[in-house]
């Protein structure tokens, strides 16, 4: 389907184009105190002293906390925590950028200046920040998914192979770079803690704060009216949020902490680099006989994050023998965290470049190779897919891209000074489903209000949910409003894992169904029409009628393997002399179940594809391992795509209804977009230049020399 | 470091505003913290992201890269002052028409930058718009829609 934006599509559009949308950092509070962390200059050691004399001389400083005078807090053990170790609670330093002092001051300027004036001395310990220098210290740790899987006899499969690929691939450390720096304003009234927070998971913040503050969750209210992008960085609970609340309670005044851009590099995680090895064996007609995928990523000294770079490989292709293995290496860096797109985002870079290499080893079209290894069911656990329209994606994507006109040999599509390359990659992402609840309330004017403790982070939740309720209630979506971003509303999970439409959408569907059911009961006679809803309330003397609904994944649905699928086709041009790789065209076709909001879904995908361009050609948070810190903690040294980097993008969705993933027929959309783009581009670069690059980002220096 | 406050007058959205600022206060922080005009956003505080773009005497600038005291007597237009009463500015209307935003955080800066870009005569083709708008980051990456919105606003009859 071809989708075009339409005027006023987003229900929160007007407040966003007029500057009236209120983000956490925009909220004012009488008597507010500004907080600013001073952070460690070293990656490993002990703080021996913190001299705050000069900092305290700054007019307006209210208090400075160091490890010597900070209120003692319990370890942050709640699952929502991004890091378990709260800074200042110990003199131990395990990464550069860890908080060593928190300045609280009357003005933002005073807080920032005083934080700059804090002087710490350290007992420096040897540090290792480069996981590639410590691969021999790799370990296996427990996580929500197994770190190793094995099906079939890999050695036998490889022995049977007539063609083999055995290569190593690398992805880079990257940061989320939401344009809104994380912000929190905590207000303690002596009984209740009100927290305005730029968070993807208000209920997670509430639970974590309850644990640390020793308060019942009901005495904590987390509000996030609008969130200026999260991409995973705001999906967990991090120390600045905890300390804003602690300081507000201690001082008896509102406390606001807004991270600086440079602090954003070390305060709420990053996507860790991966080192991958992919071994593929195939028969000479291109049928896989053996697949092995290993992935290693760095994690923190004290906290665990496994990037799960092999998850996609477990399910992507039909093969009798598939082995996967993941490891982590502990380094002196802050904890990595989820980042759009976790797991398959980095992992498919390795698998899909390897598949392209296999195609060339076989002299076979890369798309045809994938068709020949199409998985009819999940090859690792044997479960049937809940729904899978990948073949339709291949057809649509190839047709729209014009793949049939591709000539197979590298450097065969030169246009003037440009080498032109066409490459493709598969996209795959696991489906995360979280339970949620919602309330729908009808008023006498025939309008309906949806209430749920979910969040709007740019993904269009306020626009999508009314479409779900409208379908059930039979009234236009513009008569339905949404209240969200408040833990006083019915509980919903985090806005991450592409899970909101599935979980919250299904809860809204159930709440709307209950509302309709109760209206039918109240109606005097059968056959109640939507335009009569208001009359029913009037007839019964009611001002409003509310119904709650919840949804959680059924046990039976666990019998299915659930993934978003896609096929991405990329065109790159590389000037034969200058060697700058540029993406000039991307076509993506996706299988995501039923698409509830085509305009919003398309925007999610195009945005995601642009993230894929960033992963392919730009994004790398470079560290100086001698100093154990990032080289450029800013947006000029750490590149992200800008408007001039963005080519023509085309998005297509397969016509599909997934009967198992959710009652809506939908799977997730938010994070499939970036997957598969980087390998498609890398494969296009090979096709253009004949130079095989096995790491991303691919930069001009990779393409000098040969050719 | 000087910490005494200095009283200045800025003409903000057509109205003279007298404020007492720290000499270190940027124009961005003065707008947000002193005047409560929080539509102007702080994304990086270093002139890298464009979220704080405002019009200064009709030209687009990064409000984080200038001190408030340096702008004594100058005219500042923020997102709050762009519409004429209930009538949206054509660039705002175009952003709505093209769905040119997702989270909305960079949007005020994008819109002010687009107004400046069009006024500079740089918004003649999609290609020049892509270049002229590349100082404004959108991490949601609504770039295709932003380019269409600016093109629409720049080329429609009676465009600014």
Describe the structure concisely for a colleague.
The complex is a heterodimer of chains A (707) and B (160). By secondary structure, chain A is of the alpha+beta class.
Report what the structure shows:
- The complex is a heterodimer of chains A (707) and B (160).
- Chain A is built from 15 helices and 25 strands.
- Chain A has three domains: 13-126 and 185-267, Aldehyde Oxidoreductase, domain 3; 274-432 and 559-703, Aldehyde oxidase/xanthine dehydrogenase, molybdopterin binding domain (Aldehyde Oxidoreductase, domain 4, 2-Layer Sandwich); 436-552, Aldehyde oxidase/xanthine dehydrogenase, molybdopterin binding domain (Aldehyde Oxidoreductase, domain 4, 2-Layer Sandwich).
- Chain A has helices at residues 13-17, 53-56, 108-117, 154-160, 202-213, 239-251, 264-267, 344-362, 366-372, 390-401, 461-473, 500-522, 533-539, 598-617, 677-689, and strands at residues 33-39, 45-51, 61-66, 92-93, 99-105, 119-124, 148-151, 163-171, 183-188, 193-197, 220-223, 255-258, 274-282, 288-300, 322-331, 418-430, 436-443, 448-451, 480-483, 544-551, 563-575, 581-591, 623-624, 629-630, 648-653.
- In chain A, α8 packs parallel to α15, α11 (461-473) packs parallel to α12 (500-522) and α14 (598-617) crosses α15 (677-689).
- In chain A, the strands form six sheets. Chain A has a seven-stranded mixed beta sheet with strand order 3-5-1-12-9-10-11, sandwiched between helices. Chain A has a five-stranded mixed beta sheet with strand order 7-15-14-13-8, with helices on both faces.
- Chain A is of the alpha+beta class and 707 residues long.
- By secondary structure, chain B is α+β, with helices and mostly antiparallel strands.
- Chain B has two domains: 6-81, Beta-grasp domain (Ubiquitin-like (UB roll)); 90-155, [2Fe-2S]-binding domain (DNA polymerase, domain 1, Orthogonal Bundle).
- Chain B has a five-stranded mixed beta sheet with strand order 2-1-5-3-4, with helices on both faces.
- The interface between A and B is large, with 66 and 63 residues.
